[in-house]
User: Fold this.
Amino acid sequence: MSAPPRSDDALDQRWQAWAEQRGPAAGLHMDNAAAGRSSAEVLAAVSDHAQLEARVGSYVAEELAAPVIGAGRAALASLMGVPTDGLAFVESATAALAVLLRCWPLRAGDTIAVAPSDWGPALEGFAARGLRISELAIVPDGQIDLDQLERRLTTAPPAVVHLTQVASHRSLVQPVAQAATLCRAAGVPLWVDAAQALGHVDTALGADAVYAPGRKWLAGPRGVGVLAVGEAWWRRLNLTVPAMMPAEWPPVRLLESHDAHVAGRVGLATAVRQYLGTGPAQVWQRLQQVGQETRKVLGGLPGWQVAGGGAPSAITGLRPVAGQDVPAVRRRLLDEHAIVTTAAVTARAPREMTETLLRVSPHVDCSAADLDRLYAALADG
Amino acid sequence: MSAPPRSDDALDQRWQAWAEQRGPAAGLHMDNAAAGRSSAEVLAAVSDHAQLEARVGSYVAEELAAPVIGAGRAALASLMGVPTDGLAFVESATAALAVLLRCWPLRAGDTIAVAPSDWGPALEGFAARGLRISELAIVPDGQIDLDQLERRLTTAPPAVVHLTQVASHRSLVQPVAQAATLCRAAGVPLWVDAAQALGHVDTALGADAVYAPGRKWLAGPRGVGVLAVGEAWWRRLNLTVPAMMPAEWPPVRLLESHDAHVAGRVGLATAVRQYLGTGPAQVWQRLQQVGQETRKVLGGLPGWQVAGGGAPSAITGLRPVAGQDVPAVRRRLLDEHAIVTTAAVTARAPREMTETLLRVSPHVDCSAADLDRLYAALADG
Assistant:
């Protein structure tokens, strides 16, 4: 086993504090792209709300939690670049996309333009909705080619452009801010899958719709997601106002699920409050740094090759170049080294991926020693 | 204020134990049709799983919880009258119906036959799916007329019969067992909205699809629901098998939401285990008795009239016959007497209801003293 490259930076106090907000992990959690580790305060907020439900009744409890949930709604809307009334709590990113496909003014046969790296289950949703999927041109690293996009928006504008802002399987971030400017100028709506972006990079970049679960980089509870819709679209959505809902609600609010994991919404509101306390810009910068460090350390690992590279993402995909069975490696890391990773199958990005990758996604508290431990565990195989 | 009729039965030990499984309520919870009070064990199971997620990673935790969730799946399937592979966990009854409308072999313009008492939001879902809604004939209490149903299934069979087994706004239970026999003989599928039925009455009665949330009479967590599909339909569902899902899964399992409130599923599995321990048949009988007692006590209340009557349901709807504003009464009961009820608006059953009702829905632990307290609070207005 070769010695890993070493990085001796001590963990900054801010990230030490972030780690201390959480209970100790059973091992090394290198799987935040699957789900982040919720803080003790988030777990307590969820549990406290569930206990309140049992004590005073679920709907009375929901009334009592309205200020906390409302603050979370405002904070999330702001992070996603829409007014507060443009945010709906739903169950997941999957549920959010289903809502979007139902309510957006689209016809079967309309074209939706995507990058080859786009999220597979979203592509399945587009096809099921009867949309024609068209690929955008890319530059070598997998980012969309902005010059080509600008031309495309004039010559053959799609009904919608959809970008998965941060890829789930490797280090790749799409230039959403620039794409939003171009799409706006062309009058073509831009939808952003921010599943891996929310809490990880800036997501208030002018897209017309943005959706994400709360459980990944924000480390909220599972079972809560958010859909944000820009104000220009509120009156153009196809809404059947449910008769049980308050008629005075803003349109996007009517998309919110009524029978819901409300305790989870309280938890996500708590997670967002803590995230704002830590400092979003600092988190984004730190996650970029963690990704760079990860790729620097793992870049020298025999038998593996880093997929992609220079993006400001804490997600790293490793290609097995010595015939390894990636799910078996993931299982071995977990069972023998207590290191949590994901075997990222090609269905995640079927227009780009050709093989299963080992995905490593540490959070802000990743130390040099953690990366050394991962290196050693992978080298020892 | 007139003296309420008194019932002096002491609470049976079984129901005392049921009450003791829960922490003390802040007041009088007469709102189980909205959501039941989860037991301490259910709350702990949910909270423990969320803590496990934060410690070992959410997807590792889900693997570890598979036996508990699997036992819950089997128990729920059995309660709903389908094989274990016929059950899918979803987020809510609303989500379950959306899945059903998406996957069932139906064409726009097909007819769905319903009772006038059917759940309003379901009717909205049928219309949005392009189905024609046709009313079934009823007998005076609001139950469907089985002779007329039998004739209808021969002369003008609908594509689907949909029954809301236990009405949400008043004492009314549809004869699902008999309807299932008739529908099966005619080859017409029967769907059952068991939102108020699961855990309240027998729901293993031979319907082709049954769906419900777990939060009401089973007192599971909010944000978890179940969809059960009879085996004859498994291979006839319109499924696009998501590429991220294990191809070997049974068809109905593929309808299950992947990004989910898994801690809630653990909680529902725990609630069902406790329910089976208490004894389903005993619970059903007790809830029927509680409903009868409620209607007996409240039947004499000046200014109110019991809507409907003789059904084996613990849900009672009260009509205001002295010009009361029902939402204001509900608010006053809560604020001044700590009694939790619901103001049931007409959108719940728009083909039957003509006015907002005060809904009272106690659980098995309802004592004679509780009913007296409710009577006194209502009389004192």
About this structure: The longest strand of chain A covers residues 160-164.
